[in-house]
Structures are given as structure tokens and as C-alpha cells.
Design goal:
This protein has 306 residues and is α/β, with parallel strands linked by helices. Helix content is 47%, strand content 12%. It has a seven-stranded mixed β-sheet, with helices on both faces.
Length: 306
């Protein structure tokens, strides 16, 4: 079965058109399928429109969240509820094209676990959407080591076994390809069609840029140090120890110098840096013990066996 997961928030004008397009495309495939709309706290009548769609098509499933939690929690909720062996995610604003779904599925059949859409001809404003996105994509690729052109495209196809093991919270939906490497997923990308927005206004503005930047750092640390957190904390602790040592040496030089006076700030900095190093090492040990007792299960790491 193929499950198409669609987070929705105030898209009353789009959901009917999108359902028609999806039903037409999915109906041509030799697979059973379902469509999951996850209403993320809509206030414009979207839920009523989805109810009418559900009444006319039994292959549509609806999930209504208690309030607006954000795209990532809504997507995670839909992925968790999906029954399909393959999960396809996409936006509900009609900018992604359902006609690209068969191509994504064909790419999965080549042996990949995640196929990411690449909006190579993106129909958005240059300075407020395209340029910031290009910069963010470049930075994410460098920080995570997963080279993709377009992390922000929601149109992706996953093997259920890969996406259901990928941790999703906060606003991490754009980092799914990078996070899926934690379970050894094979990732590729495919150019897809991108349409100009037909209804409403985008939910994403430049004000979100700083949050994306902070998330980049978090995801980078998760990928690089999730299995060995003590390496991260230990590295920072070594830096603090080095600062403490430098202060001690300088204090000694002042003490044996002509004046014999030690600047009061040096012992204070040395003690503070030493305390910080000890604190970081303790946190690192606790994190390492936590990983040792709740490590990735062996079956998550096996691709094939006999």
C-alpha cells in the first residue's frame, strides 16, 4: 500500500482540488493506496471540507490535531498513522504536483529508501524564498554531509521502515533526509515540478530563518555525535581545561615576576573553566551511559541477511 500524508493548515480552497488530482494519479498505479489529511489546527473551514471529501472517498483518512502544532508534528502524526509500505509526503497548497509521485516510486524501486523532490525550477519569490533557501540548502549539506539540492521540498517518498525510525520533532521535517542516515537509509533526489501558489499565502517568512539556523546546528550535532556523545562534551571540556591551564601559567608568571602580584581575575577564570570542564565531562559520561543502555536496535542496522 502507498500512503500519501498531507499536513494541512487553512487550505480550504486547495484540499478539494488536491484530492481530485491525487485520486486521478494514484488510480493509475498497480497498488492499493490511502490519503491521510492531517489538519494542523485549521480555522477557515478546512476540516469541514475534508469531511466532505472523506464522505465521498473511503480511501481518505482524516486526523485532526487539538491545535496548531506545526508542520513537523503534523507530518510525524500522519507518518505514524500511515498503513502503507511506502509513505509519500507533500504540501497541500498545490505547489507540489501529484503527477511526480509515480516517478518517485519508480526511483524507490531502484533500491533507495528515501527519494527527495528537487524543485529545480522553483516558482517562488527570488529574494524572500529562493535565495534564502539556496543558502540554507548549501549550509545544511555542508553541516550534515548529505548533499542534496533542496531540503525544503516536502514532496518525498520513503520506505515505511526508514521513515518510521527517523526521529521527528520541533521543525525537523526539512532535515528528514539527513536524520534518516542514522538508520543507514539510502538517499537520492529527483527533479520535480513546482507550481506557483494558487490560493492563500505562504506560512513561511524570513522571520523563520534564525530558527532554521539553530536547527541546522542541532541536527549536525545529532548526526555526528548521537552514538558517541562523550566525544562532543569531551572535546569542549578539553577546550575549557586548556583555558584553565593558560590562566594558571599566566598567574604563576605574574607571581614570580618583579611585582609578585597576581591579577585577581586569573584565578577566577581558571577555577570557572576547571568547573566547566568537570561539568561537561560529567554530562558526557551520563549521555554515554544513556546511549549504552538505549542503543539503536540491531534490526535497524541490517539491510539484508540470509
Amino acid at each position: 500500500m502507498i500512503s500519501v500524508v498531507l499536513p494541512v493548515m487553512n487550505e480550504v480552497e486547495s484540499v478539494g482540488v488536491l484530492h481530485g488530482q491525487l485520486a486521478q494519479v494514484l488510480g493509475t498505479l498497480p497498488h492499493a493506496w490511502e490519503i491521510l489529511f492531517v489538519d494542523d489546527g485549521s480555522t477557515d473551514g478546512t476540516w469541514d471540507a475534508l469531511g466532505a471529501i472523506r464522505a465521498s472517498d473511503g480511501r481518505v483518512r482524516l486526523i485532526r490535531l487539538a491545535r496548531n502544532f506545526g508542520q513537523t508534528p503534523a507530518m510525524a502524526c500522519g507518518i505514524e498513522a500511515a498503513r502503507g509500505d511506502i509513505v509519500v509526503t507533500m504540501d497541500a497548497d498545490l505547489q507540489n504536483d501529484p503527477a511526480d509521485i509515480p516517478r518517485l516510486l519508480a526511483k524507490l524501486e531502484e533500491g533507495y529508501d528515501v527519494v527527495c523532490g528537487w524543485r529545480h525550477k522553483r516558482q517562488d519569490k527570488l529574494w524572500t524564498r529562493k535565495v534564502p533557501s539556496q543558502i540554507a540548502n548549501w549550509l545544511i549539506a555542508r553541516l550534515t554531509g548529505v548533499a542534496l539540492h533542496d531540503y525544503g521540498c516536502s514532496l518525498k517518498a520513503y520506505r515505511a521502515g526508514a521513515i518510521k525510525q527517523t526521529p521527528l520533532y520541533a521543525e525537523f521535517h526539512r532535515f528528514i533526509p539527513a536524520l534518516s542516515t542514522l538508520t543507514g537509509a539510502l538517499i537520492t533526489e529527483l527533479p520535480v515540478t513546482h507550481h506557483a501558489r494558487r490560493f492563500g499565502r505562504t506560512k513561511y517568512t524570513l522571520s523563520r530563518t534564525w530558527r532554521v539556523a539553530l536547527d541546522m546546528i542541532t541536527v549536525s550535532l545529532i548526526i555526528k555525535f548521537s552514538n558517541r556523545p562523550f566525544r562532543f562534551f569531551g572535546t569542549v571540556a578539553l577546550g575549557a581545561l586548556a583555558v584553565s591551564a593558560v590562566c594558571v601559567v599566566r598567574a604563576w608568571q605574574w607571581y614570580v615576576g618583579p611585582s609578585g602580584d597576581i591579577p585577581q581575575v586569573l584565578p577566577g577564570i581558571a577555577l570557572l573553566a576547571l568547573w566547566l570542564a568537570g561539568h561537561l565531562l560529567t554530562v558526557g559520561w551520563i549521555a554515554e551511559l544513556s546511549m549504552a543502555t538505549s542503543h539503536v536496535r540491531p534490526e535497524r542496522m541490517v539491510r539484508a541477511g540470509s
